[in-house]
Here is the input.
Amino acid sequence: MPLADRIWGFNQVNALIAATLSQEDFDAIPDDCGDEIEYGFKVDFVSFVSGKLIRYDHHDEIRSMKSFVQFDVLPTMGSWIPYTIDCFTGVGSATLCHIDKSVVQADHRRIRELEKTMFVVENRNDQDIDKQSRRF
Here is the structure.
């Protein structure tokens, strides 16, 4: 289920389909997002290491978070992961959603702590990037 459905009760894709196929369904969609039903967040993971991925750490803890919905686009074991330096070098994400905004915020903060040691690699290459120029 798209995160937007849980937050606002509808999403852009279904709105477009309704606009194309059914005026009645389209008219039932609010003109603006209105109040949030739940609170959601997409956490894009930052990699602090570069190398061949051999293990993920902390996934069980993240999965057990009250607001956890799913992991998205995680690299496969054995693939090379880069240091994250921009939005194109991210290494997956987690979707969070809960009725209580403070739960989502606390889970988000905890993921930011965990991601510093989340990706375990071999053939680590600390020379790939000047760490002083990192902004994370």
